[in-house]
Amino acid sequence: MESIEQINYLKAPITTVYDALTSEEGLGHVWTKNLKVQPEIGFINEFDFEEDYITKFKIIELKENSKIVWECLASDEEWVGTRVSFELSEKDGITAVILKHYDWRERTDFYRWCSYNWGMFLFSLKTYCENQKGLPYQERDF
């Protein structure tokens, strides 16, 4: 199984970062404006990227200000069955975010492209948490 792993450091309190990753408001500014999100285990978050399908992630773990884990139930076929986790830690006012997208069946060009896009996700998360201005899918021109 393959895994994408990335890290970024945000000049923001861990509570701000956790809220951005678990709330409709936060993920709407960071990832896509078209979504349905609730911070509760078992809830199925829905993300619409204006494709032929809705990406659905079931929340399987929530540890406040520490860890979030999603399991993909519907999306591009390469994503279905994969998991995404966000591990948070804070030191001296800097929050580290370790993003892992794991249980990929193989390393494909789509996998590589997703790795790039998860980097853009972390950039958007950083700008949202630090400056209240994320870069959701609908506002990207690249």
TrEMBL record:
Gene3D superfamilies: 3.30.530.20. Residues 11-129 form the Activator of Hsp90 ATPase homologue 1/2-like C-terminal domain. InterPro entries: ASHA1/2-like_C, START-like_dom_sf. This is ATPase. It comes from the Bacteria. Belongs to the AHA1 family.
